[in-house]
Structure formats: C-alpha cells, structure tokens
C-alpha cells in the first residue's frame, strides 16, 4: 500500500514539473522553515528510480510502408494524341493565314515625291583672320625609266696643211691619212693651201673624222705628222680627236619620272601642312586654305642620261580661319531664298546643305572681316502633308492598281508610285483604312 502511494506521489510530482515553467535563474524560491516528516520521506523516496530513465523529447512514430503483393503499372495517358492535333492546328493556321488576306485585302502605296537640286555660288562676308604662312620642304630620289640606245660614234677633229711652194695648192675632200697607231682619218672638206710667204709657210685647217666608229678613233695630238698628198705639203693634227664611242644602251630621265615624284611630294606636303594649319583655328572657327605656292628643283632635266633623278619640292601655304556658323547660316538663308523663288513654297530642304569654299580673302584685317566665295548645294523635296495623304487615299479607294497609279502620277509633286495589294488582288480596298500610304524620299534612301 505504501509503495503504491509513493509511486502515485512520484508520478504526480513529475507531472507538476512538466506543466509548470522553469523559474528564471536569477529568482530563488525561499526554503520553508519547517519540513514535515511525511513530505521529506516522499522526496527521499522520489530520488529512487522505480522505472528505467526516460529521456524527454519529441517522439515521431514512422509507420512502415504497406506492401502489397499486386504490383500493377499505372495507366498511361494518351499523349500520342497531341501529335495529330498539333499537325491539324498548324494546317488550320496556315490555311487561315492564306485565306485572311483574300477575305480582307489590304494595300500599300509607296509615293516618291519630286526632288530638285539647288546650287548657288555667292560671296559671303564673315568674321575671319589670316593664319601664319607655313613652308615645308621634302625631297625624294626616283629611278630613271627612259631607255635609250646609242650607236657607235666616230671621233672628230681637225687637220692642218702646210705648203712649202710659192704657189697655192688644193687638197681634195675625202683625203685619208693614217696615224702612227694605224687609225685612219678622212677630211670632210677640200683644203685650199695658200702659197708660201717666206719665211712663213702657207697653211689651212679643215675638219676631219675617224674612218672607223668607236673609241679607237680618239687619237692624240700629232698622231698624224707627215708629208702627204702633194709637193712640199705636210699634214698634222695639232689637237686630239674626240667623241668616238662604242654602241651602248643607257637610261635617261623622262618628264614622267619627274612628274610622278613631284605629285607624290605635293600630296605628302599638303597633308602635313593641312594638319599643321588645322591646329591653329580657335574653337568655333573652321579652316580655309587660301593659297599654296610650290617650288620644284631637280638635278637632271628630261632627256639627261642618268640612273636616278632627285626632286625637291618646297611649298608655302597660307590659311584662313573663319566663323563656321556664320557661313552656314548665311549660306542656308541665301539658298533657301533661291529655292523658294525657283520652286515655290511647296518644297522644303531635305537634309543638310553642302558648302564648298571656293576662295577666301581678308578685306579688313583690323575688323577681322573676310570675303568668301562659296558654292552651296541642297536638295529640295515636294512636301506631302498628312492631310494631303488622306486626300490621296480617298482618290484611289476602290480603283485598280493601274487607275490608282495614273491618278497619282498626274498630280504635281509625285515622281513615282508603287502599289502592292495583298492576296493577289488588282483592285485597292473600298475601305480607306485598309490602304497604307508611305512617302519615300529617294535621296534619303540612297
């Protein structure tokens, strides 16, 4: 009986501990002054475990899987039916895409308006200043390309005749003399030798040349020195014969060789000078090269025998800096006025104008003013407003392609028409909303 009471007390005490929260560690409960013997006996008894120790915690019971002896596979869904349905859907979609344009035709009308080029050359006065002149020098050596052939040449010189008679004598042209080295010399003209005038001999000098061409005919002075051809006549070559040369091929300088070198040098110099002048304008200014003066020097003229020719080019350029926005504004105003006078108000400028500086000179250095001759070019195109486009659509509604094109081309300002109707129809839709009109500017598309 007593053991039963102790177990009940122990169980009740354990339940009370589980239900009541643990007090904070900082709080200490006061001990009772007197403890009844019966309670003390119960606490001692509770320290003696009557059952195996139980670890408090959450217990989850895992139910074992049910095993069945019958393993039947699940039934498969009929996914294969998606294939024919997909094919059928595609066929319906393709058929609808072909039939829809036939049932609801639409048209695209492309209009190319008339375009006109306007060019104006005029003088404009703007703010500007001269830049410091710049001189650059550059040289190059180019090979000579002219090919020439020279035949063998005969040496040329003179023969002097001396007459020891008191009467004059004549030696005919073509008289041949043989020198000490065996070279033959022939006279070119007759020699009329005057009579001797004692104590001086009569004498005359005539031209002659070597019989055989080549350098061998270049005989030295007095190679011919002997009596000859008549009584008391002596012939001598008092100077050397020269000019005898063998046949040969050689190079010569041509004008094309010089021009090619000059062109190459001028191109290089212009690029260098342009780059140097471009660094001088201030912000907002543009550069205009006013004048460039080249000077050319060569070491061989055209036709000279040489393997190479050296060409030196020096070029001096002066630049001009001007207010670019003033030129553009003034040129645009002048060109617009010209276009309005020529074409009318129905045309408008397409894109930007193009300005080319023809010439620039200062007219007042103290005030920084300059006169510039410019060539201005712009493209003016006929304007087709949205209201006009709607009017054009109403004019061609329900018309055949040919009728619509004829109507549009007869209107002013339309240069070309292209009509495309979907579905293969040759008639434009009756509904204006089914007609799409596009304006294409030919110059902009290019």
Output the radius of gyration: 60 Å
Roughly how much helix do the residues carry, as a percent range?
Answer: 25-40%
Q: What is the arithmetic mean of pLDDT?
A: 81
Order of helices and strands: HHHEEEEEEEEEEEEEHEEHEEHHEEH
Beta strand %: 25-35%
How many strands appear in the DSSP assignment? 19
Largest sheet: 6 strands, antiparallel
Secondary structural class: alpha+beta
Residue ranges: pLDDT <50 for 5 or more in a row? 1-6, 11-62, 64-70
Work out the oligomeric state of the chains in this entry. Answer: single chain
Write the layout of secondary structure elements.
Layout: H1 2-19, H2 37-46, H3 82-103, E1 107-113, E2 115-130, E3 134-143, E4 146-150, E5 156-163, E6 169-171, E7 176-178, E8 184-187, E9 191-193, E10 202-210, E11 225-227, E12 233-236, E13 248-252, H4 255-278, E14 285-298, E15 308-323, H5 324-343, E16 347-364, E17 369-382, H6 386-396, H7 401-409, E18 414-421, E19 435-439, H8 442-445
Parallel strand pairs: 1-19
Antiparallel strand pairs: 1-18, 2-15, 2-17, 3-15, 4-13, 5-10, 5-12, 6-9, 7-8, 8-10, 11-12, 14-15, 16-17
Helix pairs in contact: 1-2
What can you tell me about this protein's structure?
The chain has about 450 residues and is an alpha+beta fold. Among the domains are: about 130-145 and about 250-325; about 150-245, no CATH class. It contains 8 helices and 19 strands. It has helices spanning about 1-20, 35-45, 80-105, 255-280, 325-345, 385-395, 400-410, 440-445; strands at about 105-115, 115-130, 135-145, 145-150, 155-165, 170, 175-180, 185, 190-195, 200-210, 225, 235, 250, 285-300, 310-325, 345-365, 370-380, 415-420, 435-440. The strands form 5 sheets. Strands 2, 3, 14, 15, 16 and 17 form a 6-stranded antiparallel beta sheet that branches. Strands 7-8-10-5-12-11 form a 6-stranded antiparallel beta sheet, with no helix packed on it. A 3-stranded mixed beta sheet has the order 18-1-19, with helices on one face. Strand 7 (about 175-180) and strand 8 (about 185) form a beta hairpin. It starts with a helix and ends with a helix.
